Structure formats: structure tokens, C-alpha cells
Amino acid sequence: MKAIRDGLVKRVLIVDLDAHHGDGHAEALRQCVEVKILDFYGADLFPVVVGPIWRGVPFERGSRGTEYLATLRRELPAALNTLSPDLVVYVAGVDGYERDPLTAGYFRLSREQILERDRFVFEQARSASIPIIMVLAGGYGPFAWELQYETVAWVLRRFNDEHPVPGDTPSPAPP
Ligand SMILES: [Zn+2]
């Protein structure tokens, strides 16, 4: 909000891939026309939002990870093209993981598919030269931090050469 108020960004896209519908930011940003929300969520997981979601994509219980990723490959580029955001805020919930105890069996994303999802979001934003912020979100098992760690570690390896951490040595480009 401050970045919008200060004129640093004009259009913000929130990409909410947490398994739950993002009722909090949808409600908080209800009046904020600069912010649009692309939200993937479980169709009957709490809560169901009737707020200002720009595009909500419901999934039925037992959805396949491959179906989820195929939908993301269609929806995210479409959102970036249509909205031309100058900032992406990525809500990177890992509760779509197949072993998540709270959403068990809902999305059935494997560990590899969670990382593939996150990489796709970053690469899409990067190829469109749009700055991206990732925030942590849901994930309810003892493994949640590992999934998030894998993504953060990949981001650091992938982009370190462009934005090196002071004192860090450049790493070879990942394949
Ligand atoms: Zn969640």
C-alpha cells in the first residue's frame, strides 16, 4: 500500500497459490483498485470469499498436481499479459502439498511439483521484467519449512548473479 501511495508502483498483482481462499488480503484491499488478485484455492476449503478477487480458480478435492500446473501455465501468463502489473506479490503457500495434514489429498502436488510451481512463477515474472516479492503462507506439517527452503534456496542460486549478496561468491547458472 505504501509503495502505491508513494507512486513507486501503479498496478500490483497478487498471485495467491495458498490452498485456501485469500480472504484476508481480499478484504483488506477491497477498495484498492490498483491491486488485482489471482487466486487458486480448494473449492470447499474454508473460507469461500465473495470479495474482489480478479480471477478465482477453484479446484475440486483430489485434483492432480499435473492439472494444477497446467492451469497455472495458462492462467499466470494471461494475468500478466492482461494486467501488466509492475509488481507481483507471490503468496507461496505450500499447503497444496500431497502430504499436508490440513488439506490432505486436496491438490496432491508432489514435492517436485511445488518447486516447479514456484520456479514457474519466478521465471514468468522475471521474463516479463516484473519485480516479485514472495511471502510465506500456509503449510501445516513438519515438512512445510523444507518445501519453502527448497524454493528460497533455488531463488538465491538462480538470481544471485543478478543481485549478488554482499560477500557471497557468484554461483554457476543452474541448468
Ligand atoms: Zn492455506
SS summary, helix count: 5
Q: Low-confidence stretches at least 5 residues in length (pLDDT < 50)?
A: none
Mean pLDDT across residues: 89
**What is the global morphology?**
globular
| Structural class by sheet pairing and helices | alpha/beta
The residue fraction in helices comes out at 25-40%
- Please report the total strand number as a whole number: 5
Distance N terminus to C terminus? 36 Å
Reported for the largest beta sheet, the result is: 5 strands, parallel
Note the beta-strand portion: 15-25%
User: Mind telling me the C-alpha Rg?
Assistant: 16 Å
Order of helices and strands: HEHEEHEHEH
| Bound molecule kinds, no repeats | zinc ion
Side-by-side strand order of the widest sheet:
3-2-1-4-5
